[in-house]
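Need tokens for this chain, all 240 residues.
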Amino acid sequence: MISAWCCEKRLVLAQIAIHAKSHESAGVLKLLDFLSLTGRIVTADALNCRREIAQQIVARGGEYALALKRNHRSLHAEVSQLLSQPRYEGAEVYSTVDSSHGRIEKRTSLVCTEVEELQKRHRWPGLTAVGKVIRSRGTTTRATTETAYYLLSRALSPEGLGKVVRLHWGVENRLHWVLNTVMNEDQGRNRDDNTAYNLAILRHMALNLMQKDRSCVSLRSKFNLSGWRDEFLAKLLVPV
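Here are the structure tokens for all 240 residues:
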């Protein structure tokens, strides 16, 4: 199952099932056809950083921020080399620092719009800028640093890139974690016919209803209350 997730509204916008032997990017291309992309920024991980996906997003009036890794070996090497040049050491950056669970994490974002030479060699659809995000995580016993690169169809500010990337990774705990932990999707044993697909659709519909409700209780409590109290369930199904 491939899902389109709206980071700001925290809603599943669409979903599509793919066959085990087919490539995920083919499903992404079909999923994009269901969405209105005009004026929207579409994010995707490195697996779906592909020319045909970038082309479809731009053709539909959208923008993209695609994670770039070594599956595009040559392009990744050139972007890495470009953003490592000394002239960018004093460039405008955006940094945030978070502290939770005994860990301090710092994220620093940088954007470069000098992509003419990259475009001459790679001709990536709609490319206008590239970005870099450096993540440093530290505890009392260990410190790690990793650098992530992004292809951008809009010349975002360093702050804009930092926020877009942060929202993208929010899907892990706002969608995947909820489905696996709160809704016990991983415990499902549905294997025959279309049962897994149909139940996934029902879970997404239920999650959307829960996310639209603004009650000051946890998602797990909302699920419990909807089973215990008819008036709470009615409020979810027919919001005032």
